[in-house]
Amino acid sequence: MDTGSAFDPKKHSIILLHGSGQSHVVWSLTTQYLSDQNYNVFAIDFPGHGNSEGESLKTIEEMATWLDKVINKIGIKDLSIVGHSQGCLIALEYANRYPKNIKNIIFVAGSYEIPVNKSLIDLAYSGDIESLNLMMKWGYGKSKQFIGGNPLQKILNSSREIREVLAVDLIACNNYKNGAKAAKKINCPTFFILGEVDKMIKIEKGKEFAGLIPNSKIHIIKNCGHMIILENAFEMREKINEFLKK
Predict the structure, then answer these.
(1) Does the domain made of 2-114+177-245 have the CATH classification 2.170.150.40?
(2) How many Å apart are CA 4 and CA 38, to the nearest integer?
(3) How far apart are CA 225 and CA 89, in angstroms?
(4) Is residue 4 over pLDDT 70?
(5) Does residue 109 contact residue 200 with C-beta atoms inside 8 Å?
(6) Terminus of the chain with fewer CB atoms < 10 Å: N or C?
């Protein structure tokens, strides 16, 4: 877990949920910025990811239950959740199970369902590094060189990690079927940040997701793909802050 500072029960808390095969490091451009806006900020590593020990959880439902345990352990009573990609599914299921804790939700490059290409799952399950290359090729708005290298390769350092972390996450996303039902139950303020040229969650799908939640707001980031948290963290975090201040 990465946090801007120690937990202060007098401040509002924001929890950041990473996507498949990732960790808290993808929020590095966002954590301190939001902390400086006078929030408690927690970028969570799910089990088996980043600094969290144990095996990766097999289902979105298990991840939501685990998240509730973390929130209770910290002592948070009032929170905003920001999810990216798979993190959106977890936020959705968490809201479905524990709605009383949530003040608002922000979905970044999210959908209520994330079917995953079988070839990608098979590559990841075999520990093939090509799965990371494919994800980044599909994940960015333009097929360009990643500054400093493929960010997923910095998080997943071995075939074993690709098999035991990324593949498990992709299967969990593919198997999650409760999203549309859960979305229709959300009644807190909700904000969607979508990438204009997202190839993984097409903008039409993001808008369809937003349409399931009454009075939700949408912001579209121009010329941006699925990896909004890395491609355009500056615009994203400013829009998050604007929404939270309303």
Answers:
(1) no
(2) 10
(3) 18
(4) no
(5) yes
(6) C
